[in-house]
């Protein structure tokens, strides 16, 4: 059995517009930045500050609400 796809949403406002701190390195062959790792610190662009995240299934009511917020 495969796991359902998930997405992170802000625990304060329910927005999917969240960002994670990360390290990237330059990939000379691809001529682009390549993600090395992500960290636990997250920020919500909707709330404007640090936030917690909840991972929800893409077909969950929370994910649908988050997508509607992004379209508004």
Q: How would you portray this structure in words?
A:
The protein has 72 residues and is α+β, with helices and mostly antiparallel strands. Helices cover 15% and strands 49% of the residues. It has 1 helix and 5 strands.
Features:
single chain; 72 residues; alpha+beta; three-stranded antiparallel sheet; two-stranded antiparallel sheet; 1 helix; globular
Secondary structure layout:
Elements: E1 6-10, E2 18-27, E3 32-44, E4 49-50, E5 53-57, H1 61-71
Antiparallel strand pairs: 1-5, 2-3, 3-4
The low-pLDDT segments are: none
Q: For the largest sheet, list the strands in their spatial order.
A: 2-3-4
Task: Profile the largest sheet.
Answer: 3 strands, antiparallel
Q: How many helices?
A: 1
Morphology call: globular
Summarize the helix and strand pattern as letters: EEEEEH
CA-atom Rg in angstroms? 15 Å
Helix content: 10-25%
Strand segment count: 5
User: How much strand content do the residues show?
Assistant: over 45%
What is the SS-derived class?
alpha+beta
Question: What would the average pLDDT be, to the nearest integer?
Answer: 91
Terminal CA distance reads 35 Å
């Amino acid at each position: 059995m495969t796991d359902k796809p998930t997405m992170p949403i802000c625990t304060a406002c329910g927005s999917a517009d969240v960002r994670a701190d990360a390290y990237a390195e330059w990939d000379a062959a691809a001529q682009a930045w390549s993600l090395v790792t992500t960290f636990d610190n997250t920020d919500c662009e909707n709330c404007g500050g640090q936030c917690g995240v909840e991972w929800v299934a893409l077909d969950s009511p929370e994910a649908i609400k988050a997508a509607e917020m992004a379209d508004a």
